[in-house]
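Hallway conversation turned thread

IA: we were arguing at lunch whether anyone had actually written out 5-formyltetrahydrofolate cyclo-ligase end to end. Turns out nobody had. So, for the record, here is the sequence (258 residues) and right after it the structure tokens. Reply here if something looks off.
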Amino acid sequence: MPLSFLSCQRQTSYLPAQFSTVMSSIFEQKKALRSRIRRELRLRYPSLALEEDPMIQKYILESPWYKNSHHICAYISCPSIREVGTTQVVSDIFQKAETEHPKSLYVPWIQDKQSHLKFFHICSNEDLAANSMGILEPIPVKSDGSPREDVMQADVPIDLILMPGLAFDRAGRRLGRGGGYYDCFVKEYISHAEKKGWRSPLLVGMAYSLQILDEAFEKWISSLLPQKIIESKLRKLSKDDQAALLRFSVGAEIASRK
């Protein structure tokens, strides 16, 4: 049974007061780490984007797992929140839409403030509009008035999900920005794929080298991907773990080469 996005559920029993103290400590640790990473990104983002965006996207475009993926979920990168760029990857997907080995793209749309995220199919940048935060999102309704295809209603499985993260540790655990949107979506989609009898998609965490941390946060991380981070080359999981896909961060791969 493939793993999914998980909330840490330890077997330790706590009294209500102890539980409250533990959760408060976890919250403060995560808050401090997020603040630290955001501060470092503010200081270094221009040089990081200039140096690492081309390498990361080139790595993706040349990878066999990308070339073999037909249906892809990917975010539209937003410089104002200092995400790893996806412009070249998105353009490549559009260009390959009508080729012998076609690709299709599903892009995230924030449904509400309760961590609900939808992914809609788009065919070009004209299908996007900026939200209140300046992030480009798919327009839910097409120009002809018909609803845009939701990935949860698609009759084909997603092969690959490119997802942002604020930080990763070297074991592959992901720390998001705090909204829980990707946690909920990935958990829901993997469950959906299981019910359909589909293979779970490959999840790829997008991160700059400074977002790959030596410190482990397994004791308090809120979510993790069902795969393992790598630092030098792709490694296949053991046969016992074949249900879970290979997990890695492109940022970590590049950092290891420096």
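OS: looked through it. Residues 1-15, 220-258 have pLDDT under 50 and may be disordered.
IA: good, adding that to the notes. Residues 5 and 183 are 6 Å apart (CA to CA).
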